[in-house]
Protein backbone atom coordinates (compact mmCIF):
# COMPACT_ATOMS: atom_id res chain seq x y z
CA UNK A 1 0.00 0.00 0.00
CA UNK A 2 2.78 2.47 0.85
CA UNK A 3 4.39 1.83 -2.53
CA UNK A 4 1.41 3.41 -4.30
CA UNK A 5 0.99 6.30 -1.87
CA UNK A 6 -1.37 4.76 0.69
CA UNK A 7 -0.97 4.88 4.47
CA UNK A 8 0.47 1.36 4.74
CA UNK A 9 -0.37 -1.17 7.43
CA UNK A 10 -0.71 0.33 10.88
CA UNK A 11 -0.34 -1.75 13.97
CA UNK A 12 -1.31 -1.11 17.54
CA UNK A 13 -4.01 1.05 19.08
CA UNK A 14 -4.37 2.90 22.39
CA UNK A 15 -6.79 0.27 23.66
CA UNK A 16 -7.39 -3.19 22.15
CA UNK A 17 -11.16 -2.97 22.84
CA UNK A 18 -12.23 0.70 22.74
CA UNK A 19 -12.07 2.88 19.61
CA UNK A 20 -11.53 6.64 19.73
CA UNK A 21 -12.16 9.38 17.12
CA UNK A 22 -9.02 10.12 15.12
CA UNK A 23 -7.54 6.69 15.75
CA UNK A 24 -6.23 4.57 12.86
CA UNK A 25 -7.78 1.14 12.29
CA UNK A 26 -6.10 -0.71 9.42
CA UNK A 27 -6.91 1.35 6.29
CA UNK A 28 -9.56 3.39 8.10
CA UNK A 29 -9.66 6.42 10.40
CA UNK A 30 -12.27 6.45 13.18
CA UNK A 31 -14.43 9.49 12.53
CA UNK A 32 -17.26 9.04 15.04
CA UNK A 33 -18.02 6.62 17.87
CA UNK A 34 -21.20 6.36 19.91
CA UNK A 35 -20.74 3.22 22.03
CA UNK A 36 -23.52 0.72 21.44
CA UNK A 37 -25.04 2.87 18.68
CA UNK A 38 -22.73 4.03 15.87
CA UNK A 39 -19.26 3.63 14.37
CA UNK A 40 -18.22 5.71 11.33
CA UNK A 41 -14.90 5.02 9.59
CA UNK A 42 -13.28 7.18 6.88
CA UNK A 43 -11.25 5.34 4.23
CA UNK A 44 -7.54 6.14 4.06
CA UNK A 45 -6.87 3.71 1.22
CA UNK A 46 -6.56 5.06 -2.29
CA UNK A 47 -10.07 5.42 -3.65
CA UNK A 48 -11.49 7.70 -6.35
CA UNK A 49 -12.90 10.44 -4.11
CA UNK A 50 -13.80 9.94 -0.45
CA UNK A 51 -15.37 6.93 1.24
CA UNK A 52 -16.88 6.11 4.63
CA UNK A 53 -18.18 2.92 6.21
CA UNK A 54 -20.79 3.25 8.94
CA UNK A 55 -22.23 0.69 11.35
CA UNK A 56 -25.40 1.51 13.30
CA UNK A 57 -27.04 -0.58 16.03
CA UNK A 58 -30.79 0.09 15.94
CA UNK A 59 -33.07 -1.34 18.64
CA UNK A 60 -35.83 -3.41 17.00
CA UNK A 61 -38.24 -4.77 19.58
CA UNK A 62 -36.52 -7.51 21.55
CA UNK A 63 -33.49 -7.55 19.25
CA UNK A 64 -31.06 -5.13 17.62
CA UNK A 65 -30.64 -4.54 13.90
CA UNK A 66 -27.10 -3.84 12.63
CA UNK A 67 -27.11 -1.53 9.60
CA UNK A 68 -23.94 -1.21 7.52
CA UNK A 69 -23.83 1.73 5.10
CA UNK A 70 -21.09 2.71 2.64
CA UNK A 71 -20.90 6.37 1.56
CA UNK A 72 -18.96 7.68 -1.43
CA UNK A 73 -18.35 11.29 -2.45
Topology:
Elements: E1 24-25, E2 28-34, E3 38-43, E4 51-60, E5 63-72
Antiparallel strand pairs: 1-2, 2-3, 3-4, 4-5
How does this model look, in words?
This protein is an all-beta fold and 73 residues long. The chain has one domain (2-72). It is 0% helix and 48% strand. The protein contains no helices and five strands. The protein has strands at residues 24-25, 28-34, 38-43, 51-60, 63-72. The radius of gyration is 14 Å and the shape is flat. The model has no long low-confidence stretch (mean pLDDT 87).
Kindly summarize this structure in a few lines.
By secondary structure, the chain is mainly β. 0% of the residues lie in helices and 48% in strands. It has one domain.
* Class by SSE composition: mainly beta
Secondary-structure element pattern, one letter each: EEEEE
Domain count: the total is 1
Unreliable stretches (pLDDT < 50, length at least 5) are: none
Shape: flat
Q: How large a portion of the residues is in β-strands, by DSSP E?
A: over 45%
Helix content: under 10%
* Rg (CA only): 14 Å
- Strand adjacency order, main sheet: 1-2-3-4-5
Kindly report how far apart the N and C termini lie.
22 Å
User: What integer is the average pLDDT?
Assistant: 87
Largest sheet: 5 strands, antiparallel
Strands, total number: 5
Amino acid sequence: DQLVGGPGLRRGRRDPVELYPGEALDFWRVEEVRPGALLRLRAEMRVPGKAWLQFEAIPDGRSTRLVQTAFFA
